[in-house]
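Reviewers of the previous submission asked for a worked example of the structure-prediction workflow described in the proposal, so we include one complete record here. The input consisted solely of the amino acid sequence. No template or homolog information was supplied to the procedure at any stage.
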Amino acid sequence: MRSTERSAESSERGHDGTVDSIWLRPEPERATRGMPLTRERIVAQAVALLNESGTEGLTMRRLAQRLNVTPTALYWHVRTKDDILDLAVDQVFADVLLPEPSENWQDDVRLLTHRWREVMLRHPWAAGLIGRPMLGPNVLARTEFLQSALVRGGLTGVRLAVSTRMIANFVIGAALTEATWRQVSPDRTRNQAREHIAARPATYPTLVASGHLDSSQWDEDDLFTRGITELLSRVDHQVRPE
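From that input alone, the workflow returned the following structure tokens.
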């Protein structure tokens, strides 16, 4: 590792050893004085590089080359690769268009989650990074919309917290699984996987009967839609009187 990268990574940690999120630090003053390199340019190129090469392909050196600057110039704006990843994830969330709140809170959640999944599938690296400190303005705005819809549905307290996590984890998990499958398993491989299961009904009787991995029977879009509907039905049941 280059000395500048070691220095940048160590500077990201506070005196108590905790990681200091980029969202908890003010943007460096020099980044606002009309310099040709801006945070916005850095993030745009980082997202493009991530779309092409994934997280393993993103390095400070490669990003600097795309921006036609030295790696040192990047460190006036970001401290580490982790900073860039946090900024990139939040930028991707800007593409998750917020619906206009309607009278039906469940419809609002459905629309939000479908748009969220679509964006994650366009940026297959993003779902695997959700779990880092999610404090960017775009992420928080979408989380605020989700929770406000659930509150309109009657949820409060721990039920609100559980339902928020349950829905978010479903969207993230669905997008991550589907994106990974698309990258490593083309249709031919998926068909072979299904044939492997179907040829062993004594070992996997339930999987054979349920059509597990049979894309001709269970469309991913339909499964996601039905999954969200099922989750919202369970959420609604929590607040209805017995």
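Confidence is low (pLDDT under 50) at residues 1-18. We consider this example representative of the routine output the project will generate in years two and three.
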